[in-house]
Design brief:
Length: 105
């Protein structure tokens, strides 16, 4: 998120402009767990390949989760659908978008 700030001092007529960029790490919350489907609401555009890395232990089933897709959440953010992996082929399915920083402008 780029923010612009203008500070004016009336007596000295000095103006200072500051520009900076804010980087936000991706975050998720559990929307629903109806096995074998798990739905997470995450920061807009964030789809963790392994949701166990962004949520507290115990919030999700301990089995590996396979990312199935993402849709915009009606209340903001991104809804990510995962399924509990039942065999090794599912565990090796293509991963979600890379984990890391999410930028807002």
């Amino acid at each position: 998120m780029g923010l612009f700030t203008l500070v004016t001092v009336a007596q000295g007529q000095t103006s200072v402009a500051l520009n900076f960029t804010l980087r936000v790490g991706g975050a998720c919350e559990v929307r629903s767990v109806e096995l074998p489907v798990v739905i997470l609401r995450c920061t807009r555009g964030f789809s963790p390949a392994d949701p166990h890395t962004v949520l507290a232990a115990g919030a999700l089933p301990t089995a590996p989760l396979v990312w199935m897709g993402a849709t915009p959440a009606p209340d903001g953010g991104t809804l990510n659908e995962y399924r509990v992996a039942t065999d090794i082929q599912q565990i090796q399915a293509p991963s979600a978008s890379p984990e890391g920083w999410v930028e807002y402008y």
